[in-house]
Each structure stands twice: as structure tokens, then as C-alpha cells.
Design a protein that fits this description.
Glyas_Fos-R_dOase_dom; 4-stranded mixed beta sheet; 5-stranded mixed beta sheet; VOC_core; Glyas_Bleomycin-R_OHBP_Dase; VOC domain-containing protein; 3 helices; alpha+beta
Length: 129
Amino acid sequence: MPSLGLVTLVVRDYDEAIAFYCDAVGFELLEDTRLDDGKHWVVVAPRGARESALLLARAVTGEQADRVGDQTGGRVGWFLNTDAFDRDYARMQAAGVVFEEAPRRETYGTVAVFRDLYGNRWDLIQLNG
């Protein structure tokens, strides 16, 4: 059965992206392999997640650099599921993650939109049930 493996997120700098996703959001660094021409193969994922992860890819062209922070045209593009919304919301806020709104209760669960260090929009979400 196929599964979604990696999703590319174009970043400005490897080290700052690793620091944000690992220190502020709470992901773990799964791989940071140096390649030719100063490139890296950097994979981060929520702790314990093994099916899907982010490939942090440093922008190397002007066109790629233009996409950093606006890869989805301003829409929420990523959904970070949690089993303990209040815990993760408080931890992320304390680590400097900027939330656009207070948590809200929806029919499907509890959610709040946050921005990554580049301005990409994410949902922190705890689904009902």
C-alpha cells in the first residue's frame, strides 16, 4: 500500500530551519547529510512519526527563493496533528512560535493557525475522537 513519504519545504537556510522545526515546533532531526555544492539532505518529522516527514530544501535559484514563506499562496498548507492540543500549544508559544489566533473549537476538533519562521501557515490541530 503506498504512503506519503516526504514533502519538500523550501527554506532560506538549513541551520535556521532545523533550529525552528526541532527546537520551537518539537520535530526531530532524522537526517542531515551533506551533498555536493553545499546542499544537504535534511529530513525532520514530528517525534515518533515515521510515515511522513519534511524534506527541508534550501532555495538555490531566484525562483525558489521567491517561494520561501509563500509556498501555498497564503493558504494553510500543513497540518500538525496532536493528541494534546493545550500542551503543544503552550510549549510552542513558549518557544516563540507565532500563532495568528487563539485556539478555537470546531466541529472536527481544536485548531489554531501558526506561521513558521518564513511565514508559511500551519494548523496545529487535535481532531475529535
